[in-house]
Amino acid sequence: MLIDLAKDGANEAGKQLQLLTTERGKAQSQLAMLHDYRLDYAQRLQKATETGLSASNYHNFRQFIATLDDAISQQNSIVGQMDVRIEQGRQQWYAQKRRLSSFEALQSRQSRQQVARANRSEQLASDEISANLYRRAHHSY
After folding, report:
1. Phi and psi dihedrals of 91, rounded to 5?
2. What is the CATH number of the domain that holds 17?
3. Which GO terms of type biological process are on file (predicted)?
């Protein structure tokens, strides 16, 4: 029963770790998209300044790029938080796997001890039968 509970715990921790990894991948994709978007707008600003740009349009470009920079900063923070959560999930999964391994080792040891006891009992019974047969064989003379 303990082994089944430990297996369930390890499986659940593994699923959580997988979910966190998937979420981190999505957050990283969003970060990459924001970086691409910012690069695109920076290039647009560069082209617009080469062809001539009003001060208000320049200000709007710069303000939008600053907004993208803030979004990138926030997304970097989210990715960092996801990394921390993944590491915690990984540690939880390792702990559950160690717990399961301990229970399995205990079960294996107990099984070996039961086999050894059964073998000893069988040997004692065999020795007793042999001793009785020997006594009968030597008593009859």
Report:
1. -65, -40
2. 1.10.287.1700
3. bacterial-type flagellum organization; bacterial-type flagellum-dependent cell motility; chemotaxis; protein transport
Is residue 93 within 8 Å of residue 14, measured between CB atoms? yes
Place of tokens 């205990």: 106
**Residues 20, 35, 47, CA angle at the centre, nearest 5°?**
165
What's the number of domains the chain is made of? 1
Structure tokens at 76: 């970097």
- Amino acid at residue number 108: S
Q: Is the dihedral of CA 33, 37, 42, 47 positive or negative?
A: positive
Mean pLDDT of the chain: 90
Handedness of CA 94, 99, 104, 105 (dihedral sign): positive
pTM tops 0.85: no
CA atoms of 114 and 140, how far apart (whole Å): 39
CB 92 within 8 A of CB 11: no
